[in-house]
Write a structure and sequence with these properties.
The complex is a heterotrimer of chains A (404), B (141) and C (223). Chain A has helices at residues 7-17, 19-57, 69-77, 90-95, 135-141, 193-207, 230-243, 253-296, 298-306, 311-341, 345-352, 361-382, 384-392, 394-397; strands at residues 61-65, 100-110, 122-126, 150-153, 164-167, 170-177, 188-192, 219-224, 248-252. Chain A has 404 residues and is of the alpha+beta class. The longest helix of chain A is centred in the last third of the chain and has 44 residues, at 253-296. The radius of gyration of chain A is 31 Å and the shape is elongated. Chain B is elongated. Helix content of chain B is 77%, strand content 0%. The relative contact order of chain B is 0.18. By secondary structure, chain C is α/β, with parallel strands linked by helices. Chain C has one domain: P-loop containing nucleotide triphosphate hydrolases (Rossmann fold, 3-Layer(aba) Sandwich). Helix content of chain C is 32%, strand content 28%. Chain C is built from eight helices and ten strands. In chain C, strand 4 and strand 5 form a beta hairpin. The longest helix of chain C has 16 residues, at 173-188. In chain C, 49% of the residues are buried. The chains are: A alpha+beta (404), B mainly alpha (141), C alpha/beta (223). At the A-C interface, helix 1, helix 9, helix 10 and helix 14 of A face helix 1, helix 2 and helix 4 of C.
Chain lengths: 404, 141, 223
């Protein structure tokens, strides 16, 4: 014979006895916690990526050939690798412009084949003498100048320090590997300017394209003197370009990151508002369902009262059931969110074409805990009205004549 | 009856997604220029076989009415789900670069479907084990 | 007297006007007494029972159980009273469909900290002829069997007073007889019984018969 039930199993048993209602409530809370967790995870990852991009850029301005602004942004955000050139003399002209503190050339070369796979990487050649953007990051991973045969690889490139890496048919030693940033830097390979020019020649040999101009560069990174605005220096550089009848474009790092941050802030704000709305809606729906359910159980509660259950016990019963459903639903939602989103970071970065850097493990745990707590709270909060009625109303619980 | 249909259909769907998905919806990377297949191609081949096995387990789940038999099949599906995750993650692997299609699309899809298969059939196994135990208790008392 | 009620009034608002479901009722029940209240539907019988069981608060008047004033008890104390000294059998079916017969009988122990009376429950079920059904669910029981389960549940804590609202309603004569036998056996063991019915045949079993009409209680016409 089956034994007597204790209070906890009586409360949770009621959930099992009404499977359709329980599953529907579970699904609702699961959707709520999934939405909260997924929304906050994506928002935080985008925020992390944008912060990393802004730190990594280093330069205040980037001067590139006119018409190649999009491809430059693509390199920064992690899109298609590119190869393009402009006249090397620009480095001097820009360095001499009013308001410029430092100017350093960079050369971008796309590879065709990184020897393991058919996904090209972006080669970024930098001038070790004048560089102030790439060096500080490389410096922390590998102090000292790089030789012609040494490279530093980005966080998502498949290689390890001390190993070798083949690019355009030539083997290089991996001197260091950078941390992830969630940006295009992760799939880039950094080498000296001379090594990059040699790689560009290798590229031309393989693709049969136009010859590499002597001393070619792809862009010039500019650092501003104190007291000069980006706009002023842009004009100064632009003036020099017009005088030389050359077509160049000046990208303001602040505007670039700023526009990303701006639209990101709006997106995050919108997502946060949606999450709040979702929470409120869930509480309302749960409240309606629990209210109807408790109304149906008036007779049962009247019986339990007549058998000696205090009002407090009935309240505990209601809260346990609501808490049980919302805890289970919350865990399910957060689990599902983690399962779907954590392996999909690279996919999301490519699809959104935005810097995307997943949070660290402690941040993830905090997000999961917060989502779970909010989802869990929805259950008991939604029963508040019913609980108040239970506590207040004698007549509510009493069985009237006629049985109902 | 409900359990047979749900677990059987679930395994068939999961199996088809695991076997055919890497060839179609979440395609793997194409071969290199010289025609050589990359590592991820072999993962795809392994998942093709494994997925068909899971689908076959689904058909058997539909056919068998005995709870004990379906418990055994469910446990087999759990282990198959583990393997579906291990092939790309550890046993065979794929391309090195994370922005390659296999790493950014195919493998995450396999991790998700494999994990859902594992979890779903683990829960199904618990449910079937409890049914068998309760039925035995009922007969015994 | 184990239960005394003086000038009980329970007033509701009905259509904006005050309506007295129980109107100045006074009543006393002695140890081991079998009292029956008869009356038509809507006469206030169930309301009176709810008041006497302590699950409804009167508008005015006093109820004392073994000398303790209900009005002076807090919710915890009155609940304890109901689970130990008062047995209440609701009108209609009052077994929970999701619990077995034995689990239904032991329901009062779910809400109290007392050790469960499993042995006593099984013994009472045997006396009521329900022992073979202990592991069954209510859906497998007849109406009469379910009613007997409610009675066993109410008798399990050996209450001083058993309050029963229409315990034989919609049951056949033979089952009615079985149920009234259980009540009589309880009174022999010292439990007082207060039963409400509109079945005159059942009322014959009582030692004292009262009539409820429009909220007022009076001695009934002799049978």
């Amino acid at each position: 014979m089956s034994g007597e039930k204790n209070f906890l199993s009586f409360a949770l048993g009621d959930l099992l006895r009404r499977p359709f209602r329980t599953v529907a409530l579970l699904f609702l809370v699961c959707a709520l916690s999934f939405g909260l967790f997924a929304g906050s995870l994506i928002s935080l990852s985008l925020q992390n990526g944008t912060d990393a991009l802004s730190k990594r850029l280093g330069a205040d301005l980037l001067v590139v050939p006119r018409g190649y602004e999009r491809r430059t942004q693509g390199i920064l955000l992690g899109g298609e690798p590119s190869t393009f050139y402009m006249d090397a003399a620009w480095t001097q002209r820009i360095a001499g412009a009013k308001g410029v503190r430092a100017a350093s050339p960079q050369l971008f070369v796309a590879t065709l084949n990184a020897d393991c796979c058919s996904s090209p990487v972006q080669i970024v050649g930098f001038d070790q003498k004048t560089d102030f953007t790439v060096g500080p990051w490389i410096g922390s991973a590998r102090p000292g100048p790089l030789s012609m045969d040494e490279i530093v690889i980005g966080g998502a490139v498949n290689g390890s320090v001390g190993g070798r890496f083949k690019l355009l048919g030539r083997s290089y030693a991996v001197a260091a590997k950078l941390d992830r940033t969630g940006t295009g830097f992760d799939s880039s390979v950094f080498m000296t300017l001379q090594a990059a020019r040699r790689a560009a020649v290798d590229y031309v040999k393989k693709t049969g394209g136009a010859e590499v101009p002597a001393g070619a560069v792809s862009s010039v990174a500019v650092s501003l003197r104190d007291g000069y605005s980006a706009g002023d220096v842009e004009d100064n550089i632009g003036g020099a370009a017009d005088a030389a009848h050359q077509k160049i474009s000046v990208i303001s790092a602040e505007k670039f990151v700023g526009s990303l941050s701006g639209s990101l802030r709006r997106t995050i704000g919108f997502a946060a508002a949606l999450c709040c709305l979702l929470w409120v809606l869930s509480v309302v729906v749960l409240a309606v369902v629990f209210s109807v359910a408790l109304n149906e159980r008036k007779r049962e509660f009247g019986l339990l009262r007549s058998l000696g259950a205090t009002k407090g016990k009935l309240v505990s019963l209601v809260l346990l059931e609501a808490g049980g459903v919302s805890l289970a639903g919350g865990i399910l939602g957060v689990g599902l969110g983690a399962l779907l989103l954590l392996p999909s970071g690279a996919f999301l970065q490519q699809s959104l074409n935005l810097p995307y850097l997943q949070p660290s493990a402690p941040q993830l745990a905090a997000l999961a805990a917060a989502s779970l707590v909010l989802a869990f709270a929805a259950g008991p909060v939604s029963t508040l009205a019913s609980v108040v009625r239970l506590c207040r109303d004698d007549a509510y619980l009493v069985i009237r004549e006629g049985g109902i | 009856m409900k359990n047979r249909i749900v677990s059987g259909a679930g395994a068939i769907v999961a199996g088809l997604l695991i076997s055919v998905g890497p060839q179609t919806i979440f395609k793997l990377d194409p071969p290199m220029e010289d025609g050589t297949w990359m590592t991820c191609h072999w993962t795809g081949r392994a998942e093709l076989g494994l997925g068909l096995l899971i689908a076959a387990l689904g058909i058997l789940l539909l056919l068998f009415s005995s709870a004990e038999a379906r418990l055994g099949l469910s446990l087999a599906a759990v282990l198959a789900g583990v393997l579906a995750v291990l092939y790309p993650a550890v046993l065979i692997g794929g391309c090195g670069m994370e922005n390659m299609r296999c790493r950014s699309v195919t493998f995450p899809a396999l991790y998700i479907i494999g994990s859902l298969t594992m979890i779903g059939f683990a829960l199904n196994s618990v449910y079937l084990a409890l049914s068998v135990r309760n039925r035995k208790k009922g007969h015994g008392s | 007297m184990i239960l005394t009620a003086r000038n009980l009034v329970k007033e509701y608002a009905r259509g904006g006007k005050p309506f007295r479901a129980v109107d100045e009722v006074s009543l006393g029940i002695g140890k081991g007494e079998f009292v029956c209240i008869e009356g038509r539907s809507g006469s206030g019988k169930s309301t009176l029972l709810n008041l006497l069981a302590g699950i409804l608060t009167p508008t005015s008047g006093e109820i004392r159980f073994e000398g303790k004033d209900y009005g002076a008890l807090d919710d915890r104390e009155s609940s304890l009273l109901r689970s130990t000294k008062l047995g209440y059998i609701m009108q209609g079916q009052s077994v929970l469909p999701n619990l077995t017969v034995l689990q239904n009988v032991l329901l009062p122990f779910v809400f109290s900290r007392r050790s469960c009376g499993r042995e006593k429950a099984l013994s009472l079920l045997e006396k009521a002829g329900l022992l073979p059904l202990a592991a069954q669910y209510p859906q497998d029981l007849s109406g009469g069997e379910m009613r007997r389960v409610s009675i066993v549940r109410a008798l399990l804590p050996s209450p001083e007073l058993l309050i029963a609202d229409e315990p034989t309603g919609d049951l056949d004569a033979e089952t009615t007889e079985e149920i009234l036998d259980l009540f009589r056996a309880a009174t022999k063991e010292g439990t007082a019984v207060l039963m409400v019915t509109h079945d005159r045949d059942a009322a014959r079993f009582a030692g004292r018969l009262l009539t409820m009409q429009a909220g007022r209680l009076s001695a009934a016409d002799p049978l």
